[in-house]
Write a structure and sequence with these properties.
It is a single chain. This protein is an alpha/beta fold. The protein has one domain: Rossmann fold. The protein has 2 helices and 5 strands; from the N terminus they run βββαβαβ. The protein has a 3-stranded parallel β-sheet with strand order 4-3-5, sandwiched between helices. It has a two-stranded antiparallel sheet with strand order 1-2. A hairpin with a 5-residue loop joins strand 1 and strand 2. The radius of gyration is 14 Å and the shape is flat.
Amino acid sequence: MEFLGYRRPDGSVGIRNHVLIMSTVGCAAEAARVAAGNLYGAVSFMNQNGCGESSGNLRRTRDVLIGLAANPNIYGVVAIGLG
């Protein structure tokens, strides 16, 4: 059987080769959505958190964004924030 996936530098493999365009804060979510819609093969994640969060919630938001970016189906990441 032939595997037609993508091997990543860390040894993980993905079956998709997307560029993730994600907002780091809620006020940049629309910009991420529009940018992904204009780039073939891109997907967006529109974060609704990030602004004015307490340290515990901010850590959780950061960990989720890092986890999404580390997914083996993601080839590259563009993070959009305002600030």
